[in-house]
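Hey, I was hoping to borrow your eyes for a little while. There's a protein on my desk that I can't quite get my head around. The fold is given in discrete form, as structure tokens running alongside the sequence. I'd be grateful if you could look everything over and explain what you see. Here's the protein in full, and shout if anything looks odd to you:
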Amino acid sequence: MTSCKKSGARVFHCPRCNRGVAFDAEERAQLGLNGLLPPAVNSVQEQVERYRSMLSRFERPLDKALMLDSLHYTDQDLYFRLLIDHTDEYMPIVYTPTVGEFCQNFSRVFRYPRGLFVSIEDAGHVGELIDHCPQETVDVIVVTDGERILGLGDQGLNGMGIPIGKLSLYTACAGIHPNRTLPVVIDVGTNNEEYLADPLYLGLRRRRETGPAYDALIDEFITEARRRWPKVLIQFEDFGNRNAFRLLERYRNQVLCFNDDIQGTAAVTLAGVYSAMRVLQADLLEQKFLFFGAGEAATGIANLIADAMVEAGMPREEALKHCVLFDSKGLVTKNRENLAAHKLPFAHDLPEADDFLTAVRLVKPTGIIGVAAQAKAFSSEVLAEMASLNERPIIFALSNPTSKAECTAEEAYRGTNGRALFASGSPFAPVQFGGRTFVPRQGNNSYVFPALGLGAVFAGATCMPNTMFLAAARRLSELVSEEDLAQGSLYPPLADIRRVSAVIGAAVAECAYANGLATNPRPDDLEAAVAASMYEPRG
């Protein structure tokens, strides 16, 4: 029986309690629904199949995303039942790559207000906005200022699609209760000329605010959010480079927070590297990585790889030399002037190179990692060079959406004669080559960030040190089977994501307990308790 206090037709307007034709005879009588529904009672599974049938009629992913968004707003449990039971099929619709198109069209398809919209014009009154939120408890906030959405750049308020999509995955993948999540967009304006000229754009029509006023608004938001929900986890999402690093450094030791673009991407990529080491039967300390890109994702991954090498016994100064960056001006070297602070640890004593193929020849990496959102950056010549340098080259084309991938899975396998250890940021279909079927899998942050949230929330962690991200990466790699590795998969199937999240969540929680960062009591069987805490939609 639903615990909703609404009755009659009002029930249908409450996504948290509406069950549609799944209401049984007793519920219909008690809630005053007789006559308001068709007489047949359908199980949730029957409703899932009905929606799958309807979704199959749409060809465009965005149309499917809009229909799922409507379901999310009208029947929350059915929406998550659909995502949980068919994760492989609908995650690319709810999140990457379709979420990029959803963001670009957010103002034009807007129908259902969800989450919190904070603008620079609300400065001094953010606490009032937060008090308007209906949730008595919030465990996880995902917040963006919309400046660097995926590989699409400044999306302004339209970037709200990212927190909405991310939080759907927190629930579907790791069981964070949907009633205890909050998507937030901080609207400080946009420099996107298209949106500034669009009469349907829903955000502020002004250039981006920067400087002290921006910082004060972010600080006010974090202070007020923690005033109302003291244990809330705040995930920073898709902030521009100029703000992402400094905001993380400012708050990471003060509040429970992390930046998924920097730290979540790093953890899932390191997990893929650990899996590659299993295939190669090699030592991480013997590897060298060349990054195509030098922003949040690249330096986040490079720093965590260096942390892993340090953990394995290598001095940090030496570990940093095993990660080399290539940005818009070429190789990042000691000779470069005016380097951004996040690049300085990776400015090595190397010759200059202004094209990536030359950089590969100079650095001789065992792996290349693409995170600059420049399609086709891993050309056939680059792939051939990597194949000549390595028996099994590591090729991670992590940029998304799909149109921004450095190379496709098929290009990676064909360009290396089937020898690449490949991972991508967007999904690719299996590839037939050389009499084998390769099943590439995404280095998708959804393997990690929901589990990080689950573990931190379960333990009541006070902050999230790097040891949590290292633990998440190791545990994720350990969950990849030998059968997965044999078919070219460096990650477990997304269909197993709930089990994967429970195991990683327990590892993250254990870090909190072991390091004195937990405020909640530790159960005897931590993994079982974490799994039992996960939200499950009503049947």
Residues 260-280 form the longest helix (21 residues).
